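Write out the 3D structure for:
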Amino acid sequence: MVAFVSDTCATVDLLVGGEFFEEFLGACQEPVKVKVGLEIELEDKSLFSINSKEMSPCVSIRKTPGTNPKTLAFEDKLKVEVKKPIRTDLAYRGTVTIEMLVIRKVVISDLPCGTGILGQRILENKVESDFSIIADDGTRLECNKRALAAMLQMDCKESREKVIKLNMSAKGVEALLKFIYYSNLDDPMKTSNIAFELLEIGHQYEILGLENAMRNILLGQKCEWFEIDAVVLLYLWTLKVDGNEDLKWKALLAFKLKPDELKSSRVFDKLLKEDPNSAKDLFAICLKTLSCYWT
């Protein structure tokens, strides 16, 4: 319901409910929140738009006779500024979007026995740093050989030369060392690019708990959180590594939300240049799978 305070100011009462939402809430085993977006246009020009906060369900009182007076619904109240006064003799076009967010708990298990604050200080102060990791941009990061060897298998040459080169960004290597030294997951929780790097390296080297932790993070985050490069890389990775159908669907759902960002994806540009057939296959598979999923 929209109530105008003045010609250019209004309050909007949002109420999202009904049988569909009640049945969904009853069947869902996890907490659900709802976000509502509303945009009003006149002659293809935006008059005003609103985006609600993430609303949790509450008990709403129905005033309709003959219906259950109490129901679960999502409610919010917003104040909006209108660019031009609303006129009753004009036709306006409105677009309403309702986003349902299933709140999954990110459960991290099987982590290495880190040393907490002590491990963090040892890493930051480079105590007994007798080994180097080289990132893909040539950056060298120092660490302790024994701490690294306990988690990551090295060949004889790498062990002898006290250096290993990993196909990771410098920030990815930093996040890996934080995980090894004191089981820290702050960096992959912030960015999908680092989360994917750690997923890939955890699988490649069978690092205790790392791959599973990254799977839980990637599956637990909202699709909007993903960067487009991570989406493309994650989808390609799931095609090569069996048993990751859930991650594949997550990548596809995130891909669907980011068609405009694909233009700026360096990963996709590289794929188009170096392997155009694979790029075409990827795009075709995504479109085909999504059309089947959403129809």
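Residues 2-102 form one domain.
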